[in-house]
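Example 3.2
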Amino acid sequence: MIGEGNKDITFNTTILAAGEMVADATEEMEIGPPSPTLVKPATCKLYGVQDGGLNNSQFFTINPVDETVEPLGDVYKGYDIEAMDVHPETNILYVASGDNTKNHPKGHLYKLDAETGQLMAIGATGFKEISSLAFNANGELWGWAKDAGLIQIDPVSGIGTEVLESKAKLEDLTWSLDGAILYGSVATELYAYEAGSGAITQKCTNLPLETEALEMLADGLMLLGMHKDKTLTLHALEVTSCEMVESRDVAVPYNDPEGIAMPTAACQQ
């Protein structure tokens, strides 16, 4: 059981077989350009994105109560979405692209409609690949840019500004609840960046597998997401002690889930 403030997020062991969930989830469909319309906020679900082939992106949701998995919209062919996070107050989902895009911008910031899966383009970050996004408690958007390092992104224009130069192959970022520490995963290690001093320390070295997704929960535990075959493995990490509090394997009809986002504000309503 993974706590979410006043509500408990339970990952039960009884789920549908992957083929029963979404038989046609991997069908690659050409869809139109991103819509300029307003997007709908996230509800109390776990949101994720599947990296299909080189650059095809399929958004999906996981119900935290019964673990059913549903595709969110159609496959975005050639968009190469590599990062996602949710605004802490508005519950709007934001995603960003990598550099393996085809006929679409590299390192671009989008909003994602949580009901239809429709993308709304915001703008170019100015960096060629964004591998992670992380909002802090004040609504500031941070990210990790390939071959550049830590950046801060204007969520209105999409423009990114370099904060810390680094060539590290960081997978994902998440902020502590008080906004004092930014955590990042590199393979099976967790690092901490202190916003005040700029100091970087190695926090945990015992993550079970290469961790591709981090999300701080309302109770202070950190949700870790990693995949193997067609299973999304979720762990609740107690950051101070580096101990795993809870673990669950969720069957998904995808072989390469990337970023995840959990709208903790929506789960507290």
